[in-house]
Amino acid sequence: MKHLALSGDLARDIALAFDASPNPYMLLTPDMRYAGMNQAYLDAVGRTRDDLLGKYIFDVFDGGGPDPAAKTNVERLRESLEHVAVTGERDLLPLIHYPIETASADGSRRVEDRWWSATHTPVRNATGDVVYILQHTQDVTEIERLRRRVGDEDRTTVAAMLSGDIMARAEHLQQDNRRLQTERNRLLDMFLQAPGFIAVLTGPEHVFQMHNAAYAELVGRDDLDGKSLRDALPEIRDQGFVDLLDEVRRTGEPFRGQAVPVQLARAGRGALETVYLDFIYQPLRDADGTVAGVFVQGHDVTDAVLADRRQRLMIDELNHRVKNTLATVQSIAMQTARSHAEPERFAESFQSRLLALSHTHDLLTRSHWEGADLHEVLEHETEAHGRQRVLLNGPVVALKPSAALSLGMVFHELATNAAKYGALSLPEGRVTVDWTVDADARMTVTWRETGGPPASPPGRRGFGSRLIERSVRHDLGGEITMEYGDRGLAVVMAFQVDSGRS
Q1: pTM value?
Q2: Residue 376 in domain
Q3: Which of 14-23, 74-83, 325-334, 486-495 has the lowest mean pLDDT?
Q4: Rounded Cα gap, residues 350 and 335, in angstroms
Q5: Same structural domain, 477 and 405
Q6: What would the pLDDT profile of 446-494 be if each residue is shown by its tens digit?
Q7: Domain containing residue 50
Q8: For residue 108, what pLDDT is reported?
Q9: How far apart are CA 299 and CA 430, in angstroms?
Q10: Which segment of 44-48, 175-179, 254-258 scores lowest on mean pLDDT?
Q11: Which residues, in sequence order, are bridge partners of residue 101?
């Protein structure tokens, strides 16, 4: 076999011995093309070397044609050869029904029904790669035909006569292999389709042997198999996970983590991202009990962790706001009681101020307490007096929740006083509210009443006046001036505002 004689006398002798063997052998490349065969193989299949060399095996032998049985034969042979090429492991086909086309004495070709027993062995190069697949095949057609011809009563006797019941054992082994392969495929499908992330790491360097789609999605890459954990995911080298895996291998004890943060450099997503994982590292043992690898399984719980944090933050914020609101209500009640000795007047004033507080709370609730627009706050506190009588003019200004609550109370007091004593107490009276914001985020609000009775300073400072001044000066950290004149009240407030909601 010249194509196998590489150099030297020894190589030629090996090639000659191969060709002279009475047992049929042939070599395939990993892509299933004939690379060599001995004379016994050519005799068994009724072909010449020129018929086979370089040819794709399934182009030459199609298993008997296009019928379903032939396709099954081809798939069984293909699966066995591919298993050897991919895994580097030997594979056995104890019995396979595989008709072949042969040449008759007159030169015509016909399909012969054949049964075979074949062993497929990997042939590796110096670096360990599979470069050929060696097939040792035996034509067991006559044995199988004899076994099929005899009756059920004689079948056991015939089988025992034929190489110590070899055919019965071959059939039994083949059935077991099929069953195991089916179970393996089912488990592999479950592994690959599992909703949680799964990976198998082997050896002291924790080399990826397999992983499912959920794991690839978690880490943002799929080129993991065959790489060590340090090489595949270099960003986690210093995050403690390699040490945990080493400890599992050393002790043989599993490790379970809950809501553990890990930073991942997901492909195409820029900077490191922090995700939170529930996971378990489970030791995998070989036949003698030694830990050979680690089974990794878990779930991405980032959404749940962040939702829990948001919920805790909201609860803390709610507690803070409830306390502040109760303090505000208590202050309103005490100050209103001091200003109104009669229960009826106290109840009326107290209720109206609670409603003003409630209106602003409604606004803030709609925005999830992120803030409220100044125009909306003014509309809520003055709409009872008619939009034609209270004219609002100014840009959109987003107020912090605390500022919205304070201004809501201020505008309520101003509108109530205008309705009782000022411009809104007469049909022709009007109120205009103008506001501006300068480049330094300082806002000026002007409340101006016209068309009403002359305004004069009150004889005594009531709760409303004190609430207005305290809200602007203390709560907002601003300044306020109140001018009383013949044309009505004019109030100017100035204070700092944020450029956005918070």
Answers
A1: 0.40
A2: yes
A3: 325-334
A4: 9
A5: yes
A6: 999 999 999 888 777 666 788 788 889 988 999 999 999 888 999 999 9
A7: 2-139
A8: 76
A9: 64
A10: 175-179
A11: 111
Distances (CA, A) of 264 to 124, 218, 261, 497: 38, 9, 10, 39
Same domain, 283 and 335: no
- Three-class SS state of 139: strand
Least confident among 45-49, 248-252, 383-387: 383-387
* Count of beta carbons in the 10 Å neighbourhood of residue 349: 20
Same domain, 318 and 446: yes
**C-alpha of 164 from chain center:** 57
497, 435 Cβ separation under 8 angstroms: no
Closest C-alpha to 199, from 187, 189, 212: 212
DSSP reduced 3-state for 181: helix
374-382 and 401-420 helices cross at what angle (nearest 10)?
30
Spatial separation of the C-alpha atoms in residues 485 and 375, rounded to whole Å: 27
Share of the chain above pLDDT 70, in %: 74
- Max CA-CA distance within the chain? 135
* Cβ proximity of 115 and 95 under 8 Å: yes
Cα 165 vs. chain centroid, distance in angstroms?
55
Note whether 291 and 344 are same-domain residues. no
Any alpha helices (H) in 367-452, and if so which ranges? Answer: 374-382, 401-420
Q: pLDDT: is 295 or 4 the higher one? A: 295
Nearest to 404 by CA among 375, 432, 431, 435: 375
Output the six-digit token pair for 284. 């995998």
Amino acid, res. 144: E
| 218 domain-assigned | yes
Say whether pLDDT at 440 is over 70.
yes
Return the DSSP state at 456: -
pLDDT for 63 equals 77
Q: State how many domains the chain has.
A: 3
Average pLDDT, the chain: 79
> In sequence order, which ranges of 194-296 are alpha helices (DSSP H)?
213-219, 229-232, 241-251
Closest CA to 295 of 188, 189, 198: 198
Q: Residue 155 falls within a domain, yes or no?
A: no
Looking up residue 14, the CATH number of its domain turns out to be 3.30.450.20
3-state SS of 305-323? HHHHHHHHHHHHHHHHHHH
Residue 288 has φ and ψ, to the nearest 5°, of -95, 10
- pLDDT tens, position by position, 336-370: 555 555 555 555 555 555 565 566 556 556 655 56
Is residue 19 located within the same domain as residue 80? yes
Torsion sign, CA atoms 122, 123, 129, 132: negative
Instruction: Phi first, then psi: give them for residue 258, nearest 5 degrees.
Output: -130, 125
318's tokens: 């709610």
Distance (Å, whole) CA 243 – CA 261: 15
- Whether residue 81 contacts residue 133, with contact meaning beta carbons closer than 8 Å, is answered with yes
Q: Are residues 284 and 328 in the same domain?
A: no
Q: How many CB atoms lie under 10 A from the CB of residue 400? A: 19
